[in-house]
Amino acid sequence: MRMAGFLGNAHAFSVKLRGGYDVVQPSGQKIEYGELRNITVSRPERLRVESERSDGTKTLAVFTGKEITVVDFANKVYAIEPQPGNLDDTIVHFVRDLHLRFPLAMLLVSRLPAEFDERVRQVDYVEKTNIQGVPTHHLAARSDAVDIQIWVADGNQPYPVRVVLTYKNEPGQPQFRAQLSDWNFTPKLADDTFVARPPDGAQKIAFAAQIPTASAEARKAASAKGAGK
C-alpha cells in the first residue's frame, strides 16, 4: 500500500518496462513473446508509451489531455480520437472501450491504492531479496482472477522492480512478467514529449472499436436475402 500511495501521488515519472508474456497454444504448450516499453507520465492528463515487440514491431501511444493518438510504424497507420477526461479516465477508456492492450496499466492510475483495496483478497510477505542489486520486498497477492507477485524497492521510494501476473482462470494459466528499471520521478519533459509524429506517408484510420458493425437484425436480414437467391 505504501508503493500504491507513492506511485498514485507521483506528479510525473518515467520508467522502462521489459516484459514477457505467454501465448498458450492449442497443444497446451506456452510460447513466450516479449516487449520493451518506455513510459512517461505527467499528471493529471498526459502519457507517452513507446513500445517495441520481440518481432521488432514499434508502436507509440500518446495522451495529450485533448486527444489520444496511436501510431503503428510497421503498418504506417495511425488513429486519433478525443481524450475523455484525466489520465485515469483515459487509461480505462483505452483498455475497456478501445480494446487496446496495455500491460500493468493499473500501476499508472492515481487511484491505485483504491484499486488494490478493492481487488486484492490476500497478501503474503515472501522474503527480502535483491533484484539486479536493488534491495526489494517480495510480496505474493491474490485477486479473484489473477495471482500477483511483486517485488517492491526498499526505502523511501517504494517503486515496483518486478511483477509477475498469473491469469489463473484462463486456459493453461498464462503469465505476464515485467522487469521495471530506470525509474525517474523528476523526468525532463520537453515540448515534444507528448507529441506523436506519424511516419511520412502514414494513413489515418479509425480505432477498430469505432468502426460500426451491422446489427443482429441487419445481419439476419442479409442472411435471409442471400439464402433466397
Number of domains: 1
The secondary structure category is alpha+beta
- Helix and strand run: HEEEEEEHHEEEEEEH
Task: Give the beta-strand count.
Answer: 12
Instruction: Give the distance, in angstroms, between the N- and C-terminal Cα atoms.
Output: 65 Å
- What is the CATH fold-level name? outer membrane lipoprotein receptor (LolB), chain A
- Spell out the CATH superfamily: Lipoprotein localisation LolA/LolB/LppX
Quaternary structure annotation = single chain
Q: Calculate the mean pLDDT score and round it.
A: 89
Give an overview in words:
It is a single chain. By secondary structure, the protein is of the alpha+beta class. The protein has a single domain (2-119, 181-227), classed as outer membrane lipoprotein receptor (LolB), chain A (Clam), CATH 2.50.20. The chain contains 4 helices and 12 strands. It has a 12-stranded mixed beta sheet, with no helix packed on it. It is globular. Mean pLDDT is 89; it is low at 221-229.
Q: What's the short version?
A:
This protein is α+β, with helices and mostly antiparallel strands and 229 residues long.
Topology overview:
Blueprint: H1 2-9, E1 12-24, E2 30-42, E3 46-53, E4 58-63, E5 67-72, E6 77-82, H2 87-97, H3 112-119, E7 122-131, E8 134-142, E9 146-153, E10 160-167, E11 175-184, E12 203-204, H4 216-227
Parallel strand pairs: 6-12
Antiparallel strand pairs: 1-2, 1-11, 2-3, 3-4, 4-5, 5-6, 7-8, 8-9, 9-10, 10-11
Using brief descriptors, characterize the structure shown.
229 residues; alpha+beta; outer membrane lipoprotein receptor (LolB), chain A; twelve-stranded mixed beta sheet; 4 helices; 17% helix; DUF2092 domain-containing protein; LolA/LolB/LppX
